[in-house]
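Quick entry between incubations.
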Amino acid sequence: QKEVEQDPGPLSVPEGAIVSLNCTYSNSAFQYFMWYRQYSRKGPELLMYTYSSGNKEDGRFTAQVDKSSKYISLFIRDSQPSDSATYLCAMSVGGAQKLVFGQGTRLTINP
Amino acid sequence: AAGVIQSPRHLIKEKRETATLKCYPIPRHDTVYWYQQGPGQDPQFLISFYEKMQSDKGSIPDRFSAQQFSDYHSELNMSSLELGDSALYFCASSPTGEDTDTQYFGPGTRLTVL
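Done. Structure below.
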């Protein structure tokens, strides 16, 4: 079983919808949680980064962490066709250690 | 803003050949990480360096080696290439200080082994 589980999708929603992406993890040592966006054949782009339970908002994006349930989410409001990409959750134990990724969710926003 | 630079962007090699991938981190970032991403897979950690010393090692084959130089750039050397080494190879860098756990990825090198 992978340390980080993420539904690979694909997920297809209409433009303007609210998107919810989720990951669960098994390693309670994970302290830092990130969401990356990856367009086809490109490098992962850091979207959100948080290290505490609760919500963190940045524009149309909200990252949510629940350490007690070992569950993290990314919400995208007012989704745009340009948001179509693969979204990867990633985690680390801290101290500039390696990232452990989920499988990635492929998201398509339909105009 | 400056980003992580990787070269070459594409590389085609034959089986049993060698390849060298280069990574130039964001200025003032002193930690470099290498990841391998197979088709349809998530990135897998290979190795990392902090201040020119190896700081962590993941699932990196013995055929691969890497180092970080005095200017903080890093090179991944791959020998006796196998078909299964065909993948995207990403380099990431992170700064010291409170943001040390944020890793910024380069565009990747696509390696094809024939």
